[in-house]
Every structure is written in C-alpha cells, then in structure tokens.
Amino acid sequence: MGRLQDKVAFVTGGASGMGEMMVKLFTAEGATVIAADINEAALEEKWGSNEKVMTVKLNVTSDEEWEAAVVKVVDKLGKIDILVNNAGISTEKGLNEITIEDWRKLSDINGFGPFLGMKHVLPYMKEAAKGSIVNISSYTALIGMGLNPYSASKGAVRAISRAAAADFGQYGIRVNTVFPGVIETPMTKVLESSQEMVASLVKMTPLARLGQPEDVSNAVLFLASDEAAYITGAELVIDGGFSAR
Ligand SMILES: NC(=O)c1ccc[n+]([C@@H]2O[C@H](COP(=O)([O-])OP(=O)(O)OC[C@H]3O[C@@H](n4cnc5c(N)ncnc54)[C@H](O)[C@@H]3O)[C@@H](O)[C@H]2O)c1
C-alpha cells in the first residue's frame, strides 16, 4: 500500500526538476498524478507513455487555463486530493538590470500562479471536506538573498499559504509551504559554469552540499500525505541548514 494510495495529485511544473521528481515519487506511492506544465513537449517526452500520469498543458498565470484543467481532471478522475504549486521561474538579474516587465512576469508566474491554483482547486476540496496543498516558496523569501522580484514573489507564496491554511482548515483542507535552498535542477544550471560559486555555497551550507530534487520531493510527499494529517500552516525549510546560520 503506497503512501498516496488512490489519491489524485495535481503537480504544476511537472515536466522538470523538482516537479518531475514529485510526479515520479507520487506515482510510485500509488497516486494518479496530473503533471501540468507550460512546456508541452517536455511533458510528452517525460510522461507521454506513463499510464499513472495525466499530462495537462497549463500556463499557471491563466485563469481560463486553470479552470479548464481542473474541470477536465475532476470530470475524468472525480476529485483532486493534492495540489502542489511548484511551477516557477527565476532570474539572475541584479537590481540595476531588472525591468518592470521582469518584475511583473516573476510575480505573475511565481506568486499569482499558486493563488490561481488554490482558487480553482479549493472549491472541489471544500466539497470533499478534505485536501492537501503544498506551495513551493524559496529560502530567498526568508533571508536577505537578493533584492529582486524572485524573493518578492516567493514571499507572496508564503503569505497566501498561511492565509489559506487559516481560512480552509475548518473544511479539512491543509496548506503548507516548503522553502527549498539551492537545489540542483535545470533552474540552477548556471551554477555548472561556476565551480567557485558552488564551492562558496557549499561552504555556507552546514550539511556541506547542494540540495537534490529528491530532498525537496520527499518532504512534499510527506506533507501531501495523510501522515501529515495535523500539519497545516507549517513552513518547512529544506536548505541543508543554509538559512540557520
Ligand atoms: N532549484 C532551486 O534552487 C530552487 C530553490 C528554491 C525554490 N525553487 C522553486 O522550486 C520550484 C521548482 O523549480 P525547479 O528548480 O524544479 O525548476 P525547473 O526550471 O527545473 O522547473 C520549473 C518548471 O516550471 C515550468 N513553468 C515555468 N513557467 C510556467 C508557467 N507559466 N506555467 C506552467 N509551468 C511553468 C517549467 O516549464 C518547468 O518545467 C520553482 O517554483 C522554483 O522557484 C527552486
């Protein structure tokens, strides 16, 4: 019996990095998983032939696309037990290079996207009187790591997660937030070209290594599962101790 046996889990950003690992883990634990992503080709390449995975092309900033995706899933599978708002983008730009368009784009995808996901999935969870939502923020929302729209958008994720936890606990719905540190995924590919940067990050990390997608996905699996039945509004930092210093 898997830890997510017979659950239906909707994972955004399911075509790459941590989201891809979540889809893998969740299906291995007995869930049917909806891998949603803006990158349709990557979805097809990764999950096209997996019968435990339903792929959905979704731009998380689109209210209409969210509505269509959620209705499609509920029509086909009858419910959504778990939502992981994981899709996101980052920027390497410093304060002087950031444009207003950059700020709006990051806020839109990273901050507004999770809001829309909750807006569309919560009514179904409310009707079912159960559900687990895990929102992916970042350690940059907690410590001073860049005056940029990325940190700001991830701070928004923290705030809306707490609000949703407070508002929807009465309906049996749990909402928790995960704050990854530096994790080796396509998003942090830029690190491959700077061994110096990697060495300095590792030096600042008590557990003395960068994170891997499974470090985060294992924690998300726990929070998504019934093992975390009394956990809501929690904030779990997964950064090897980086922000504890
Ligand atoms: N990698 C890190 O070091 C790190 C650290 C902290 C937080 N995070 C967060 O973790 C999450 C996953 O990041 P990752 O490292 O796996 O990145 P990734 O780039 O490997 O994967 C992100 C996925 O999101 C998808 N995506 C981007 N914009 C989208 C949109 N508008 N609609 C739907 N899908 C979209 C991409 O196509 C991609 O498949 C992100 O929210 C990221 O901000 C990452």
Automatic annotation (TrEMBL):
Family membership: Belongs to the short-chain dehydrogenases/reductases (SDR) family.
GO process annotations (BP): bile acid metabolic process
SUPFAM superfamilies per the UniProt record, alphabetical: NAD(P)-binding Rossmann-fold domains (SSF51735)
Protein's UniProt keywords contain Cell inner membrane: no
Keyword presence, Transmembrane helix: no
One GO molecular-function entry: oxidoreductase activity
Sorted UniProt keywords: Oxidoreductase
InterPro entries attached to this UniProt entry: NAD(P)-bd_dom_sf (IPR036291), Sc_DH/Rdtase_CS (IPR020904), SDR_DHRS6-like (IPR051122), SDR_fam (IPR002347)
Pfam families referenced in this protein's UniProt entry, alphabetically: adh_short_C2
Annotated protein name in UniProt: SDR family oxidoreductase
